[in-house]
């Protein structure tokens, strides 16, 4: 792609949008915006207005309807009819957009609109529907960091977002190469809430032209604005759905309306299945051909968290009681098209005779059942009872861990046996690459050194005899030893999954008997008719003791008679990190969602869906200090972990999901220190920095070190003293002080703030990592097989696909180089070759050739360019005056060539560093 300035990108995008039906208009100021709104509202509401144009007084009432409203309230107003009081005392309802037909709306675009507020700003592109500004597009020239456009929008919102501009629903940012979208909000805009658009197969569409041809076409944009925006009532925020959620909804609705078959959505745990299921249910409930839509959840999941999640989406939409009579009343309500209930209540409703007078009326109607967590609740007699009763119903499941042949249910069925077709998949590896969930760092400990392989570590037990009590003591002591390290000094908390209630009680009693200051709680289910002859106390009595301790800890008065209230309060306290470790057997290992939970201890045999569901309690994205979920296994789960990851990621490679081991991070730390010390041998060296470029290089080096140290500190064996790394905690803090000083100076420097704040992300979230980077790709290349040609071709194709998906600048620059090695050199390497050495030789050759060709094409000495490259690598500065002295052309040509050489030096250095 040739070099493009911002204005060229803007013109190119404008021309494309015009070709698809957007009308180009000029909006030099807000007066023009208001006049245009007056005209467009009349055109789209012509029949409702009886062909009479709005008067100035009537227009004023429309403007007042939006005045003093925030973004959330404007979003609600847009979606509701407006009662217009006309000058002749009549009343009419007008619509701000036509919900049911995109082509009944008027699409316009405006370039370089000036908006006045605290400061005057000029928007690159505005997209308007019926005269209302709904989408703002901010462009930057190719090569500029995409965050520059994001921070510019954030500044625009701060400076002058009010009145009609609070109607903005979406923002689009692009530098031509990368393009993302995100929703407007009254809260602080966060870059983590920006999304790449993808196709239905989760392939990223980043280029501006490709993005515009899919996302910005009138029908697609209208669908997103009208169908796939979410008004979160409890948080008063506007949200836009992610691409995989949108594609899943569209696939499900299409299948429900145009086939008689069933289907399921496979979206990994933590990716927002509740929202996707709810949106699909809402869309289907609005279809005239569908009598009712039932969104079924398992009773075990209908806790405080689930009720809160649904009520965020629509206040009062779910009945959280266990009464079937309440369900019958909802079914009898002709206005109630969407009903959220439990599979248990629905099963009783179709089974019990007293409800047949109501239920019989729906036997042959077109009903849609959408089942959350269908890998659990759909297997068993209740599903068969419901399915047998309704003769014209369709069933759609949502799951993060489907049942396959390998993990089929007890009756031998898979998810596909019941729900037939997988309509859309978004796997754990996809979510990790998109930074929507975290990967896992798994450590294995065991009690007997002869039991496992070399990848685990041994817990020391006294004497040769091994028994349960000694196992409990060894494991518990190890947890106490490592807990602060694993949870960032208790910023986060942990679950401890244990094999049985009996063992849980042993662990609980051991923790209670030793000295520590951790807040430890426990929960499990108990059954009245359980055989307890071999136990000193019944499970219920044990739980009463545990709850009594909880009551003393938190000054409350729960008992097993108020068990559900205890669980609800316990859930809330775990989410608020008032509990350090929660001991469980099965509860909380599925469905429980807390960003502040980062560690899972396991002394329990698990496999496939149960294992991955439990692991996934730890993988919600929170902040830089939570780079992955920590899993600590006290059972030999290595093989089961790899099997589960491969099964649910559709891959033979676990690298994306499971993080590297301790030795890898230790090597990374040493390399990061080499790079930091090369820039600043001592903390005092930082005080001599004057050039912006070298300050930014230091910031980058320190961030890299910080990221690695956060990961290292979660490993049990790490300590500054014993690891052999060339830094102490005191020295790290000294460098950190210098880092924070530069951040503060840059934020308050009025002359340099705009440029530097755009080119470097100066937020304190300094530990963001890009999963598909050069290091990751080189790791894959080193492991390409040299013995099986067919397998090698598949591995090479997969690596090239990953390179094309990456948004990491260095990998983009290096992409063609790596692809050249993969296609021209690697296939001819003999068995036993050292791939890394072969690549390094290839890169050296290409590096020299690229420098020579650039110099020859631009009629400048290669030695001059090489000298300036070496200087840039040492100082971080490009000596433009030194370059100009070696160019013998006109002044204008000198400047152009100097700019070209400077860009080459930067990209060449980044590419080959």
TrEMBL record:
<dbReference type="InterPro" id="IPR040980">
    <property type="entry name" value="SWI2_SNF2"/>
</dbReference>
<dbReference type="InterPro" id="IPR027417">
    <property type="entry name" value="P-loop_NTPase"/>
</dbReference>
<feature type="domain" description="Helicase ATP-binding">
    <location>
        <begin position="254"/>
        <end position="402"/>
    </location>
</feature>
<dbReference type="GO" id="GO:0005524">
    <property type="term" value="F:ATP binding"/>
</dbReference>
<keyword id="KW-0680">Restriction system</keyword>
<protein>
    <recommendedName>
        <fullName>Type I restriction enzyme endonuclease subunit</fullName>
        <ecNumber>3.1.21.3</ecNumber>
    </recommendedName>
</protein>
<keyword id="KW-0067">ATP-binding</keyword>
<dbReference type="Pfam" id="PF18766">
    <property type="entry name" value="SWI2_SNF2"/>
</dbReference>
<dbReference type="InterPro" id="IPR004473">
    <property type="entry name" value="Restrct_endonuc_typeI_HsdR"/>
</dbReference>
<dbReference type="InterPro" id="IPR022625">
    <property type="entry name" value="TypeI_RM_Rsu_C"/>
</dbReference>
<dbReference type="Pfam" id="PF22679">
    <property type="entry name" value="T1R_D3-like"/>
</dbReference>
<dbReference type="GO" id="GO:0003677">
    <property type="term" value="F:DNA binding"/>
</dbReference>
<keyword id="KW-0238">DNA-binding</keyword>
<keyword id="KW-0540">Nuclease</keyword>
<dbReference type="GO" id="GO:0009035">
    <property type="term" value="F:type I site-specific deoxyribonuclease activity"/>
</dbReference>
<keyword id="KW-0378">Hydrolase</keyword>
<comment type="similarity">
    <text>Belongs to the HsdR family.</text>
</comment>
<comment type="function">
    <text>Subunit R is required for both nuclease and ATPase activities, but not for modification.</text>
</comment>
<dbReference type="InterPro" id="IPR014001">
    <property type="entry name" value="Helicase_ATP-bd"/>
</dbReference>
<comment type="subunit">
    <text>The type I restriction/modification system is composed of three polypeptides R, M and S.</text>
</comment>
<keyword id="KW-0547">Nucleotide-binding</keyword>
<dbReference type="GO" id="GO:0009307">
    <property type="term" value="P:DNA restriction-modification system"/>
</dbReference>
<dbReference type="Pfam" id="PF12008">
    <property type="entry name" value="EcoR124_C"/>
</dbReference>
<dbReference type="InterPro" id="IPR051268">
    <property type="entry name" value="Type-I_R_enzyme_R_subunit"/>
</dbReference>
<dbReference type="InterPro" id="IPR055180">
    <property type="entry name" value="HsdR_RecA-like_helicase_dom_2"/>
</dbReference>
<dbReference type="Pfam" id="PF04313">
    <property type="entry name" value="HSDR_N"/>
</dbReference>
<keyword id="KW-0255">Endonuclease</keyword>
<dbReference type="InterPro" id="IPR007409">
    <property type="entry name" value="Restrct_endonuc_type1_HsdR_N"/>
</dbReference>
């Amino acid at each position: 792609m040739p070099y493009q300035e911002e204005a060229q990108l803007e013109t190119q995008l404008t021309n494309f949008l015009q070709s698809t039906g957007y009308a180009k208009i000029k909006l030099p100021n807000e007066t023009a915006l208001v006049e245009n709104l007056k005209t467009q509202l009349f055109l789209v509401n012509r029949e409702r207005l009886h062909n009479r144009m709005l008067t100035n007084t009537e227009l004023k009432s429309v403007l007042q309807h939006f005045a003093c409203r925030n973004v959330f309230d404007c979003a609600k107003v847009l979606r509701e009819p407006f009662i217009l009081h006309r000058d002749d005392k009549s009343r009419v309802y007008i619509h701000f957009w036509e919900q049911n037909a995109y082509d009944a709306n008027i699409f316009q675009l405006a370039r370089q609109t000036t908006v006045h507020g605290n400061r005057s700003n000029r928007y690159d592109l505005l997209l308007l529907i019926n005269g209302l500004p709904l989408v703002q597009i901010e462009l930057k020239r190719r090569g500029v960091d995409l965050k520059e456009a994001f921070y510019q929008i954030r500044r625009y919102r701060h400076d002058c977002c009010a009145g009609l501009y609070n109607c903005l629903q979406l923002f689009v940012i692009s530098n031509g190469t990368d393009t993302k979208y995100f929703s407007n909000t009254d809260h602080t805009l966060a870059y983590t809430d920006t999304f790449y658009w993808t196709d239905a197969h989760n392939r990223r569409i980043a280029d501006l032209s490709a993005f515009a041809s899919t996302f910005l076409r009138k029908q697609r944009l209208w669908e997103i604005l009208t169908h796939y925006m979410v008004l979160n009532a409890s948080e008063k925020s506007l949200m836009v759905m992610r691409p995989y959620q949108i594609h899943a909804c569209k696939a499900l609705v299409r299948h429900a309306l145009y086939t008689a078959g069933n289907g399921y959505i496979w979206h990994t745990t933590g990716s927002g299945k509740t929202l996707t299921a709810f949106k699909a249910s809402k869309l289907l409930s609005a279809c005239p051909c569908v009598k009712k839509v039932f969104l079924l959840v398992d009773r075990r999941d209908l806790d405080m968290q689930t009720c809160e999640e649904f009520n965020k989406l629509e206040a009062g939409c779910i009945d959280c009681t266990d009464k079937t009579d309440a369900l019958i009343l909802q079914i009898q309500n002709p206005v109630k098209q969407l009903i959220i209930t439990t599979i248990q209540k629905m099963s009783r409703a179709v089974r019990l005779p007293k409800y047949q007078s109501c239920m019989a009326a729906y036997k042959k109607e077109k009903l849609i059942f959408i089942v959350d967590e269908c890998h659990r609740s759909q297997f068993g007699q209740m599903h068969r009872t419901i399915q047998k009763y309704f003769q014209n119903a369709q069933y759609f499941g949502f799951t993060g861990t489907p049942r396959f042949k390998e993990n089929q249910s007890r009756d031998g069925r898979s998810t596909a046996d019941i729900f037939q077709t997988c309509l859309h998949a978004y796997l754990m590896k996809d979510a990790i690459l998109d930074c929507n969930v975290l990967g896992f760092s798994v450590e294995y400990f065991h009690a007997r050194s002869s039991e496992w392989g070399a990848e685990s570590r041994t817990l020391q037990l006294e004497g040769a005899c091994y028994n349960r009590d000694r196992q409990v003591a060894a494991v518990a002591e190890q947890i106490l030893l490592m807990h602060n390290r694993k949870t960032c000094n208790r910023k986060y908390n942990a679950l401890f999954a244990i094999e049985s209630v009996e063992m849980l009680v042993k662990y609980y009693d051991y923790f209670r008997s030793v000295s520590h200051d951790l807040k430890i709680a426990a929960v499990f289910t108990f059954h009245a008719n359980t055989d307890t002859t071999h136990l000193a106390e019944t499970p219920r009595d044990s739980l009463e003791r545990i709850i009594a301790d909880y009551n003393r800890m938190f000054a409350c008065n729960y008992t097993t008679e108020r068990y559900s209230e205890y669980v609800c309060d316990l859930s809330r306290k775990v989410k608020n990190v008032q509990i350090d470790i929660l001991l469980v057997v099965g509860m909380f290992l599925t469905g429980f969602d807390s960003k502040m939970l980062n560690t899972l201890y396991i002394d329990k045999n698990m496999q496939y869906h149960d294992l991955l569901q439990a692991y996934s309690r730890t993988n919600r994205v929170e902040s830089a200090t939570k780079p992955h979920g920590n899993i600590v296994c006290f059972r030999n789960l290595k093989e089961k972990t790899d099997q589960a990851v491969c099964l649910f990621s559709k891959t033979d490679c676990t690298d994306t999901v499971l993080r590297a081991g301790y030795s890898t991070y230790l090597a990374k730390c040493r390399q990061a220190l080499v790079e930091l010390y090369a820039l600043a041998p001592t903390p005092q060296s930082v005080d001599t920095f004057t050039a912006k470029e070298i300050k930014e290089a230091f910031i980058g080096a320190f961030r890299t070190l910080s990221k690695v140290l956060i990961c290292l500190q979660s490993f049990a064996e790490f300590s500054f003293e014993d690891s052999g790394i060339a830094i102490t905690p005191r020295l790290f803090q000294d460098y950190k002080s210098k880092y924070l000083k530069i951040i503060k100076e840059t934020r308050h420097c009025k002359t340099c703030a705009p440029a530097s704040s755009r080119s470097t992300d100066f937020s304190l979230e300094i530990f963001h990592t890009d999963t598909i980077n050069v290091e990751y790709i080189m790791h894959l290349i080193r492991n390409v097989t040299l013995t099986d040609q067919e397998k090698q071709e598949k591995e090479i194709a997969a690596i090239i696909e990953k390179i094309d998906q990456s948004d990491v600048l260095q990998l983009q620059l290096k992409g063609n180089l790596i692809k050249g090695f993969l296609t021209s050199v690697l296939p001819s390497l003999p068995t036993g070759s050292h791939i890394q050495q072969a690549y390094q030789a290839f890169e050296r050759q290409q590096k020299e050739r690229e420098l020579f060709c650039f110099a020859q094409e631009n009629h400048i000495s290669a030695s001059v360019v090489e000298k300036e490259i070496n200087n840039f690598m040492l100082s971080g500065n490009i000596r433009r005056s030194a370059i100009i002295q070696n160019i013998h052309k006109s002044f204008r040509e000198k400047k152009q060539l100097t700019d070209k050489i400077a860009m080459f030096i930067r990209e060449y250095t980044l590419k080959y560093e």
